[in-house]
UniProtKB/TrEMBL annotation:
GO molecular function: acetylglucosaminyltransferase activity
GO cellular component: plasma membrane
Primary gene name: pgaC
This protein's name: Poly-beta-1,6-N-acetyl-D-glucosamine synthase
Membrane topology: Multi-pass membrane protein
One Pfam family, short name: Glyco_tranf_2_3
The family this protein is said to belong to: Belongs to the glycosyltransferase 2 family.
Chief site of localization: membrane
CDD domains membership: CESA_like
TM segment ranges: 55-75, 341-362, 415-439
InterPro entries reported for this sequence: PGA_PgaC/IcaA
Enzyme type, top EC level: transferase
Any one biological process term the GO annotation gives: cell adhesion involved in biofilm formation
Amino acid sequence: MADFDLLVHAGHQTLPWEALLDDAQYWLHEAVRGYNHLARWKYWDDLTDLAARFIFYYPLLMAYVWMIGAIIYYLRWERRNNDPENLPALPHYPPVSILVPCHNEADNVRETVEFLLKQKYPDFEIIAINDGSKDNTLEILLELADIHPQLRVVNLATNQGKAMGLRTAALLAKNEYLVCIDGDTLLGLEAVTWMVRHFIDDPKVGAITGNPRIRNRSTLLGRVQVGEFSAIVGTIKRAQRTYGRVFTVSGVIAAFRKSALHQVGYWSNDMITEDIDISWKLQLAGWDIRFEPNALCWVLMPETLKGLWKQRVRWAQGGAEVLFRYGRDMLRRTSLAMWPLYLECVVSISWSFLVVALMLYLPIDLFTESRREQLADLSPSWTSMLLSVTCLIQFAVSLSIDSHYERRTGGMSRYYYWMIWYPIVYWMINVGTTVTGFVKAMRKTRGTRAVWVTHDRGLRPKR
């Protein structure tokens, strides 16, 4: 075959295939040479050993920290109150405003509003915000408002972002207690009562985060996320509540005290994840955040790798943004209770960067090892077995606790099998998205408005 048949494109130039192989060989040689130079440094072995131990022991340690915290939460607050349908009797039922920001929700918003209208709560209004939708979301909302006087519609002509939509609706709301859900979320019929009880019980409570459940479970990614929301999200929220501070309320279901929001200036328009940001603002101002597992809602999640990647990068970027913005506030003595949360976030991000560095380092290390050393590295070890067993224990504990909330959908045990894929699929994705999100947060210009983007809503058949 002639050489011109083997041309490939690289950047703006066209290079012969052989030239690319020569370049690859050159850079591999340079990488090995650099590695050999580092390996001669007298502290190199100690440093790599320390990094390897950190990479292994950190997730192992945190798995037990989260499990212990979740078990304490269950025994202290949840064991006798884990039936959503067994509603608590409140001394009074203050009026509530339910806020529903919508952007291109024509496929979902009718069902969302119809679910809200069935709430088992005596006094509530619904405020739906159409935020620059390009489909017929506004027409559907206006049609529903003509039928149901409880529904008010606010129309923003252009895409202003979820934070601005929520802020607008909060300012227009008549009531002190606000429940916020997404336009594609189905709110549990008992959820409002379970959340309002915390505001009545304690005037220091500024927000309550609910318990999202996955609606779409038709693919492997969807089924794994069912277990993830119990084993990871639910367990961590319970544990963080036990230890004092919650990293974030769930943006798909959260309730707020309006006076608390007013004190901290409502949601920030330039933070990509408004839920993480408002959680930190409230807690830094001294407000308490509670987790209410009986406040259920059903949400749509990505079921493609591309959609999942985008979602997790956004979450990771939002977490990094709050670290940058509120790092100086951590120096205040009044922020002492937030220090463990801040430190855990920093360590978690550092762990992800080290895992990426290890993945880049391993091929070079294998290339320079003897055959016996290579086989030893690739063979199963007691450490990997311990991590796997711990992972399965964590899933078993969390699914047992959370199974009370899936009685109506057949329980959680059938998803235990699917969780064996979690360490393979999700850990690698989360490492990549954490590093990518952190870099995007570093490069973002402060003050840039965060607006709506179209998300993967799963592979549900169109109705």
